[in-house]
Amino acid sequence: MALLRVLGRLTCVSAGLVLIALGAIAMGLAHQPEHEFVSMGNHVAARAVVVALKLAGQTEDVRQSADATLNGVFLRFGGVPIGLILLVGAILPGRDRNPIPTEGGEGEQSDFSTIAAEPKSSVARRIRKQALALARKGNPVAAAELCLDNGIMDAAADHFVDANQLVRAAEVRHDQNRFAESAELYLRAELPELAARIFSQQDMHLEAANAYEQAGNQSVAAELFEEAGEHVRAAECYEQSGFPRNAAQAYIKAGMWEKGAICMEQTIAEEMSSSVGGVQSPQVKKFVRMAGNLFARAGLEERAEAVLARGESYAEAAAVALKNGRKQQAVNYFLEARDAPRAADLMRELGQADEAARVLAEHHRDLGDDEQAAVHYEEAGELLAAGDIYRMLEQYERAAGCYERYGDAAQAAEMFGLAGQSAEAAICYEKAGLYAEAAEQAALEGDEIKHAELLDRAGNHLRAGEMHHAAGRDDDAIAVLQHVTHNHPDFAESSAILGDIFRSRGENTLAIKKLGHATEGAEIAQENVRVFYGLAAALEANGEISEAHELYEKVLAFDYSFSDTQACVERTAGKLDAAGEQAASAAGNSNSPTARAGRYKIVGKLGRGGMGVVYKAVDTVLDRTVAYKVLPDSLKENPQALKNFLREAKSAAKLNHPGIVTVYDAGEHDGEFYIAMEHVDGSTLKEIVRRRGKISPSGIVHVLSQMCEALAYAHEQKVVHRDIKTANAMWTRDRKAKIMDFGLAKVIEEVRNHTTVVSGTPYYMSPEQTLGKNVDHRTDIYSLGVTIFELATGMLPFREGNLPYHHVHTAPPDPREFNAELPPVLAGIIARCLQKAPDDRYSSCLEISAELKGMLRDTVRPANRHS
Question: Model pTM?
């Protein structure tokens, strides 16, 4: 391109010289306009000029203008001037064709020497006129190019503007180093990006920012607005370009706190979405505090609280709330910030002293300061929590005080005991109804009267009576000992003490009765020989010499040297001889069954139950002791029931198993229906549970195994009990379980269906029995499940409410809720026995026995391996 321009310049010089020569000749031949030379010269000159301009790199518009001017122009008038112009144009350097500036500054200004100097005023005026003429003829571009080629830059720019060639005009202004005007022209030409670059290079920040904003480059515009100090507009541009953090900073500089806070909220959201630490990130925390501060400065306190709370800057949120008088909200924020002391101070101001103390207690407990925690719990009225901590710290007296005020007398008593304060411990144990423990504390305190009184209330009437008797308080002893019931294990010993007291007072009838209770069914042994001797003495004193003499002889036979027994025997023998008494008189009440003639001689009363009264009797035919049960009078009113009773009694009599109380006989005597059965020396399971509470798992297995064997045997004989319960199972002195009253339940049930006189307990009845459906041996299995539940927990599965409904519809509780030590196998046996549908229970008691044996094997094997 440079070579062509050089050639062009040479051509222009040649053409210029030719035109000057031709112009001079043409002027000489002016009077011959149609001369062949003139026409040829015009044409040659015109072509030469065009070619020269083209090679010189001039624009197409200039070339066309030159062609139009020279083609047919008066060579004679223009040859010399045009030739001079070509010479000048060839000599002067050409202009840069790419004046648009770039980011790197290229095109800004090449070499100052490339800008054509303004021509002399006369030439310039002529060219301006020519250009104006061209413009008026409607060719402003040619006018502009003419001026541009002649270095008349201002006029060129103006003509380009008139021609709406704003970019060319901008280039001209740029070549003139009139950069601001160039940029404005670029703006008018809708090239704001180019304008923005020029403004920016000239450090015209505001104008550059406006241009960049117009060009849609918001981020750069924002930076330039900041440079120009236009912070609001900078912030708006930052917002539009998605830079909320920068926008916030700009708004802050402009003092627009709310908008700054809003932008900072957006910044927080962005940071949390990208930050690993989330709201706990230090950067997020910083932004949260900034946003809260900005909202506060804007007077938007609630929004400040909200943003701080969302950002878990609770301490700062609390400060804002306090400033606005929102103390309760500040309390909540301090609690969230784990600033318990400040929260507690505010709570006290708000009248929440108890809650403040509770907060401080939890605070100190978290810090491991248990004693301070206890102090504050006590202050807060959390006495149970305070007591537990004092107990852990072994500050027993303070623990006791807390428990006592809380109302837990049992724990208070225990703590007073550990603190060595027996009197207070006794009082609290008594309040808690734990009379045995209270009695121990009273004993430690040395208060014998209180000790005995508490033993009595604890049910240990025997020990209480012994203490009163030993201290000479026999009236108190009598009152206490009379609380011991006939079926209680201490009954005999209590009766012995009462007998001694009555005998010492001369109340021989009462003494005989009580000493008789003490010796009833017992053989003379070393521990009770004194009681037999006392009974004999009471009988003698009461004039019953025969009975006294017989007992003295028994005592003498047992222990020849006991007291003065030998003398007593001789004395009573003498009395008998003197009175001529040959035999013992009959004892008892003439109205009682004892005086009744027949096979069975009644010797005592054993008890009363739903099936009737039970007496101890002697079978005078077979000379054996039996249990003689007289059935209810209501049985007489149902002849069919009587018939069935005899049939069931015969069926029960066929049962011969060591786990079943044997039925010897059944019938009617003197209008009373009776059943004679094996007399068992022991207690019912009901009495044992009532006395001792729940039975140990090993004891349950022992009892249950025997009952299952007995029931399995009965069921094989097609006999169903229908009333299995703890009251119908005996536990003998030789640790055997025996089931009694086989067959009677069905008879009583039949009587119940016809009358309302006799009624039974529904606690053990199976669902099908409750609904009056036909039953089989599986009803005994259900009742057995209730019985095991009672042995395992000390209570029944259903104790209150509509019992029949519960047995039919309500699922029984898990016995392990009441006895956590109960093995899963036993709990599973109980659950299966208590299934509502018979098919879901065990099919026989032998299955239960098999599970128990498996349980015992699993228990024994590990021990054997260990050994």
Answer: 0.41
Pick from 333, 342, 339, 341: nearest CA to 313: 333
Confidence of residue 107 (pLDDT cuts 50, 70, 90): very low
Burial classification of residue 53, based on how many CB atoms lie within 10 Å of its CB (0-12 exposed, 13-18 middle, 19 or more buried): buried
pLDDT in tens, 744-761: 655 555 544 443 333 335
**73-82, 352-361, 788-797: which has the highest mean pLDDT?**
788-797
682, containing H or E segment = strand 682-684
Sheet strands side by side (includes 663-669):
600-609, 612-619, 624-630, 672-678, 663-669
In three-state form (DSSP H/G/I as H, E/B as E, the rest C), the secondary structure along 145-185 is HHHHHCCCHHHHHHHHHHCCCHHHHHHHHHHCCCHHHHHHH
The residues pairing with 834 across neighbouring beta strands, listed in sequence order, are none
Helix (H) or strand (E) holding 673: strand 672-678
Task: Tell me the DSSP string of 845-863.
Answer: HHHHHHHHHHHHHHHHHHH
Which residues are CB-neighbours of 361 under 8 A, at least 6 positions away? 372, 373, 374, 375, 376, 377, 379, 380, 382, 385, 386
Note the Cα 573 to chain centre separation in Å.
Answer: 86
Q: The tokens of 625 are what?
A: 């002791």
Q: Could you give phi then psi for residue 244, rounded to 5 degrees?
A: -65, -30
Which residue type is seen at 723?
Answer: D
Q: For the CA atoms of 171, 176, 180, 186, what is the dihedral angle to 10 degrees?
A: -10
Distance CA 628, CA 642 (A): 17
Contact 310, 291 (CB under 8 A): no
Cβ within 8 Å of residue 704, ≥6 positions away? 788, 791, 829, 848, 852
Three-point CA angle 686, 688, 692, nearest 5°: 125
How many helices (H) and strands (E) in the chain? Answer: 44, 8
Nearest to 852 by CA among 688, 712, 738: 712
Q: How far apart are CA 732 and CA 683, in angstroms?
A: 7
CA neighbor of 250 nearest in space, from 229, 269, 221: 229
